[in-house]
UniProtKB/TrEMBL annotation:
Record key words, sorted: Membrane, Transmembrane, Transmembrane helix
Coiled coil segments of this chain: none
Name of protein: Bile acid:sodium symporter
Keyword Cytoplasm: no
Membrane-spanning ranges: 41-58, 79-96, 108-129, 136-162, 240-260, 299-322
């Protein structure tokens, strides 16, 4: 049996399909078969809120100030990454509007727009930049800045671009909610880093479980609510295939524009790699908690589905690119 599973395991590793991705799929399947409801859903919702606060507290505690300071002098690179993340992607999402209602459902299009407003990833952007021998210090700073800016910019973009599916209230209310649930725990982690930083750094495997567990909790509660509202009756196979194709096209455009722009502006090869990986990604770790804050529970399933798909596609594609560029840089 192990010999039969070996080729499958090798293929999954090559495609960057990790254990967490498999757990995500299992969580969606569990929510589809055994969705939580009633008092159980209320209790899980409260537990999820606490878990999200802990998640962002740990993000703050893990973030090295020294690494940020080391990369902050590269302001042109950071501006380009932020422009790609918060300007290019939203414009790309708006350009896809004619597809809403024809190729994908209006609810899925809301999820695509939400995806376009999210900040970049942190861990995978840095990991792929390192693998491809890019500017790692700048990647740490740029990806971290993207997530910090996203706490304010993402709810503003959601309020501007998205009406259907939003939880309601003004953009200021959304920012205040994000600040209370995400930014304050993040800043508390940063403040306590001098005292708990070494402990956090030495317990990364255990803290990774907290990170991923928080996301899985949100995904389970979100999909449970959506399944109870008839998610799988509203989502056709055609729309799901179209969503995968749209995600691939969006990622290809983002990678191409990031590469072309960085070369036109005269960035070095190392900086180009950083710009490509930091400017083309969207964060699942930030996106799922933000969706819970910004959208009504009944809409969450459709909203986070594009984020989950894009997340895995970007990992698969960028893993191949990072390996290729890493070999070329030797």
């Amino acid at each position: 049996m192990p010999s039969l599973l070996a080729p499958v395991s090798a293929l999954l590793r090559r495609l960057s399909i990790d254990t967490f991705t498999i757990l995500l799929l299992c969580t969606v399947a569990l929510a589809s078969v055994l969705p939580c409801a009633g008092e159980t859903a209320v209790v899980l919702g409260k537990v999820t809120t606490v878990a999200i606060g802990l998640l962002f507290f740990l993000h703050g505690a893990k973030l090295s100030r020294e690494a940020i300071v080391a990369g902050m002098t590269h302001w042109r690179l950071h501006l380009l990454v932020l422009a790609s993340t918060f300007v290019m992607f939203p414009l790309l999402g708006l350009a896809l509007k004619p597809l809403a209602g024809n190729v994908v459902t209006p609810e899925l299009y809301v999820g695509i727009l939400f995806l376009c407003t999210l900040p970049s990833t942190v861990q995978s952007s840095i990991a792929f930049t390192s693998m491809a021998r890019g500017n790692v210090a700048a990647a740490v700073c740029s990806a971290s800045a993207s997530n910090f800016v996203g706490i304010f910019v993402t709810p503003l973009l959601v309020s501007t671009l998205i009406v259907q599916g939003a939880a309601g209230g003004s953009s200021l209310d959304a920012v205040i909610t994000i600040v209370e649930q995400l930014l304050l725990p993040f800043l508390a982690g940063q403040f306590l880093r001098p005292w708990i930083g070494k402990w956090v750094d030495s317990h990364k495997p255990m803290l990774k479980i907290v990170d991923q567990g928080s996301i899985l909790l949100v995904v389970y509660t979100a999909f449970s609510e959506s399944v109870n509202e008839g998610l799988w009756h509203k989502l056709s196979g055609k729309s799901l295939v179209a969503l995968v194709v749209i995600s691939c096209v969006m990622l290809a455009i983002a990678l191409g524009l990031a590469t072309w722009t960085s070369r036109r502006l005269g960035f070095s090869r190392e900086d180009e790699i950083t710009i490509v990986f930091c400017g083309s990604k969207k964060s699942l770790a930030s996106g799922v908690p933000m969706a819970k804050v910004l959208f009504a529970p009944s809409a969450l399933g459709m909203v986070i589905l594009p984020v989950m798909l894009f997340h895995q596609i970007q990992l698969m594609v960028c893993a191949v690119l990072a390996q290729k560029w890493g070999r070329e840089q030797r």
